[in-house]
Amino acid sequence: MSAKKGGGSLNGFLDQGARMEGSLSFDEVFRIDGHFKGTITSDAELVIGEGGVVEGDLRVGRLAVSGTIKGSVDAKERVELHSGARVFADVRTPTLVVEEGAVLQGPVESGPPRAEEPTRREPAS
To answer: Bigger pLDDT: 8 or 61?
Structure first.
């Protein structure tokens, strides 16, 4: 997923060899190629590179994964799992794209949100 698709530019980066633990929030596009453990919250785009490992809860607008995720993912718009991605998580998103070679293990909810089921009423006799 490119920065142009999300409409933002890269405004944060965690490089290979770097480790971070805690809470992360950002405004445009953030890329992780290192190891992050904790909570990530943003309405924007998160990119997890081939060497990136994220353990925790992700609540983002868009997500592109080439690395590893363990935990839960809640994306408002889209999740893309590229070849080589390894995702062991509960995933909720309206749009899910999984390339050949990606691994996805865990419950998945994808598609438009379900409308409330109408209550069935018995016909009057």
So the answer is: 61
Residue 71: beta bridge partners?
56, 89
Contacts of residue 92, Cβ cutoff 8 Å, sequence gap at least 6: 73, 74, 75, 108, 109, 110
Quote the CA–CA distance of 54 and 37 in Å, as a whole number. 6
Q: Which residue has the higher pLDDT, 67 or 11?
A: 67
Q: Is the dihedral of CA 76, 49, 23, 27 positive or negative?
A: negative
104 and 91 Cβ atoms separated by less than 8 Å: yes
* Prediction pTM value: 0.83
How far from chain centre, in Å, is Cα 61?
8
Q: Are 19 and 1 in contact (CB under 8 A)?
A: no
Residue 4 has pLDDT above 80, yes or no: no
